[in-house]
Amino acid sequence: MGKGDFAVELEDVGFVLGNGKRLLDGVSLRLPAGETLVLIGRSGSGKTTLLKSINALLRPTSGAIRVLGRDLADWDPIRLRRQVGYVIQETGLFPHFTVEANVGLVPRLLGWDEGRIRARVQELLRLVGLDPDLFGARRPGQLSGGQRQRVGVARALAADPPLLLMDEPFGALDPVTRAELQEEFRLLRDRLRKSIVFVTHDIREALALGDRIGLMSGGRLLRVSAAGDFFQTDEPEVAAYRKVFA
Amino acid sequence: MEYILSHPFEILKMTGEHLLLVGVSTAIATLVGIPLGVFLTRRPAWSRWVLGAANVIQTIPSLALFGFLIPLPLLGGIGARTAVVALILYALLPIIRNTHAGIASVDPAIREAGVGMGMTDWQLLTRVDLPLALGIIMTGLRLATVISVGVATIAAAIGAGGLGMYIFRGVSMVDDQLILAGALPAALLALAADFLLGLLGRAVTRKPLLCMKLLAAGALAALAAGGAFLLASGGEAREARPIVIGSKNFTEQSILGELLAQRLERAGFKVDRRLYLGGTLICHNALVAGQIDAYVEYTGTAYTAILKRTPVSDARRVYDDLQKSYLEGFGVRLTRPLGFNNTFAIMVRGGDARRLGVKTISDAVAHARRWRAAFGVEFLEREDGYRGLAAAYGLDFAEPPKVMDLGLTYRALADGKVDLIAGDATNGLVSALDLFILEDDLGYFPPYEAVPFVRADALAGHAGLQEAIDSLGGVVSDETMQRLNYAVDGERRDLREVVGEFLDGLGR
Ligand SMILES: Nc1ncnc2c1ncn2[C@@H]1O[C@H](COP(=O)(O)OP(=O)(O)OP(=O)(O)O)[C@@H](O)[C@H]1O
Ligand SMILES: [Mg+2]
Q1: Which residues of A touch B (CB under 8 A)?
Q2: How far apart are CA B380 and CA B365, in angstroms?
Q3: CA distance B317 to B333
């Protein structure tokens, strides 16, 4: 992908349930390759639904989605998902796999040889601040919530995907560790030049990590702005965030 | 214990047969049930029907299921194959249900994570669904195995062998030793299977993938070993065309089956014995399906239980009706009656009969007002049992008749606890305890003459068969049958020996 390409494009995407409930409503957005878009919004505003739609886990009822330059309808969903790193809210680690097996999952699905997988897993565990010798053989049940989240991030990065979808990856961390990981995330992002859609509740995190910020409410994307311009509006929902930020 | 200690190899062989039945059927049920359970999680619309059907099968009593299976082509028949089919059907429900429930219980968020990581449905199944459901699946497998060990004891009823042979023989001879010889190894087998699968089940949580492979390998190995064995043993039986003799599962029947068998062997026929089959229905179905060529049936039983007619007391008419209906309906001929009539018999102590000079039931009516009576529950309940009898003869006792286990009434009568019972005319205890059978002078009881029922095509296909069987006509009187029964049941003598001596005595 050259400059000016988009990693993700949504055009008037809607998701209506059988009972008439709208989970997504007229969402349009473009994520230029290499940029980080942070989605912020209240609980239930549709952030996770949007990520799942990009990953073809959900099929919107209207509108069009292009991912990595190709229409979603033209993707084999399984190939697509292996090229998109997905950090799942509440981590979604496999309880019966070791930490190593969890992190090495997608490379294994892609058929990498075992030596390369092992090296990659060690590299990633170190990257997210977990000692492979100490944690590699553990089960997710033997980790703290924050440690699990780091494993989730490492797993999403494992196959070096060009696009990352991160659903509250740092939600369960203490403020200190969280700040550390945010810092590492920024370095990582600048070094790896990934395209990232990052979901958070935390306006500080959004301002710190996003190139741009999208605000969601009731299934609609109210506004997308450069991170610095987020507060430059009369939008009442933004005003609410300004209040928490102050 | 004595029997077990004195027959270690025989018991080991029976246990081996038993294990084979259970192993093969559980292996097949696993290889069928797990994929079926998985399929249901992918097609939820089917699950109600499939689980419902498996549920219904589970509730069919095993003897009835065997009865259904015997006439079926390919699956049915007598012997290990039918037993394996029945055992598979029983084992399927717990395996399907637990596979289905196990996978359904996997956290949807975990499954979604798998899909989100780019797993194919197959990868999701083998790496997420099955490993996480394996604990529950193993519980189903354990249950299926333990059920199979139990049901397989009943497989002896259709000639499949196994530990059930001891149990059936033991029950018919009221021999605790024999029952124990079957029940004890079966119980140990169930416990061992439960324990081993339990171990595997616990290992499952640590090494699910390894356990899945072990399980699949184990099932395939059991299948291969069992299949080879069954094929080998099946082929052997099919080569020569012996005459197959069946019998029901009580002592008198095994004697009669052995009698037919030895008589035919003496006449130069090759004979295959399928004794201790599980009852009238199974013998009948086996005969009609050509799985056995002959067994001895009682006319009254055939008349009421098979043809569903109301009982009549005219022996001649019953025999002729049966001859006609069986030939037309089933291709089966009745040969000459053996001589005795195994009907309900009203009995008193021999001493009382001689002292009071009572010979018939009518004679006894006058004394009955001072007597107490005891009957088995069946005789008390049946319309053609006590109620009809009392009405026909105007019979009345000092107190309402006691209900007692039929087998215990003989001794209760001999010991003077009661004064009149309704027993089995050919029971060996009648002469041994000096009991007297009152004549049914009003002809109230329908006839239960013992008659060899033989397939017409067997009679046509084997020259001399009809003559050999007919030569047994009239040779077994009530007293003779009592004596033979007592020799086997009371004196615990070997069946073949007793029958052999009897035939020697006849000079046939
Ligand atoms: N499978 C579903 N069926 C019905 N409603 C759903 C389903 N999944 C989500 N919803 C509803 O859709 C709305 C948006 O959910 P979504 O998970 O996208 O919210 P979110 O913005 O990620 O919230 P949070 O910040 O709490 O994670 C919610 O009202 C939720 O209850
Ligand atoms: Mg969410």
Answers
A1: 52, 55, 57, 78-82, 86, 88, 90, 92-96, 105-106, 109, 155
A2: 18
A3: 16
Q: Do B109 and A88 count as a contact with CB atoms less than 8 A apart?
A: yes
Which atom of ligand 1 is nearest to A201's Cα?
A: 25
Cβ of A47 below 6 Å from ligand 1: yes
A64 neighbors A11 (Cβ within 8 angstroms) = yes
Instruction: Give pLDDT tens digits for B435-457.
Output: 999 999 998 888 899 999 999 99
The kind and range of the H/E element at B424 are strand B420-424
Ligand 2 centre from A56 Cα, in Å?
Answer: 16
Per-residue pLDDT of chain A (246 residues), as tens digits, is 444 588 999 999 999 998 989 999 999 999 998 899 999 998 999 999 999 999 999 999 999 999 998 999 899 999 999 999 999 887 689 999 999 999 999 999 999 999 999 999 999 999 888 999 999 999 999 998 888 988 998 999 999 899 999 999 888 778 887 888 888 888 878 887 889 999 998 888 899 899 999 999 999 998 898 888 888 888 888 888 888 777
- The Cα–Cα gap between A10 and A28 comes to 5
Inter-chain residue contact A94 with B119, CB threshold 8 Å: no
Q: How many CB atoms lie within 10 A of CB A62?
A: 13
Closest CA to B367 of B377, B379, B359: B359
In chain B, the domains with their CATH numbers are 2-235 (1.10.3720.10), 240-340+450-506 (3.40.190.10), 344-437 (3.40.190.120)
Strand locations in B288-414 (E)? 294-298, 332-334, 344-349, 373-375, 402-403
In this structure, the residue with its CA closest to atom 19 of ligand 1 is A44
Contact B246, B274 (CB under 8 A): yes
Q: Residue A78: list chain B partners with CB under 8 A.
A: 118-120
Residue B363 phi, psi (nearest 5): -60, -35
**What is the ipTM score, two decimals?**
0.88
Residue B61 contacts A, CB cutoff 8 Å = no
Query: What's the rounded Cα separation, in Å, for the pair B325 and B327?
Result: 6
